[in-house]
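Worked example

This section walks through a single chain of length 84. The input is the sequence exactly as stored; nothing has been trimmed or padded.
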Amino acid sequence: MSETDELAQLRATVEALTAKVRVLEDQVEITQLVAQYGPAVDSGSGEAAAALWTEDGVFDAIPHLREEGSPFVPDDLTDLTDLD
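Given that input, the structure is written out below as tokens.
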């Protein structure tokens, strides 16, 4: 293999690894957001829960409740436990 071929292969490997790292970083950020939302809601901290949402956020985890937009925070956070 020529030096040019080796360099091209190394560049391709670095690009592939960079893409994989980006995916992993995104997954970690999403996991951290999900992990923060439950405690914020459970503690009744609407401000903390609202801070985790974006303008295009969608809450679709409970069959009886679907909300879109930012921030999705029920007026009374206990409403989420009264859906039975």
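What to look for: The two ends are 66 Å apart (CA to CA).
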